[in-house]
Design brief:
single chain, about 70 residues, mainly alpha, 2 helices
Length: about 70
Amino acid sequence: MEEPAQARVLRGQRLAEAMREDLELYGVAELEERIASLEEEIARCRAQIERKRAGRAAADALFSRSD
């Protein structure tokens, strides 16, 4: 028998699920760990934004015309 195909996780779906999670179930230490993880993810996102901006700036500099 074939195993059912796993449902594809859409971009941002896990974040959306985490945002709907009931925080009442967590203790203080767990909430602090969650905040630390989210802050790490924010830093990772900001670093990616900076890499993308730097790449765009390099491309713009390379392909822009100087008159």
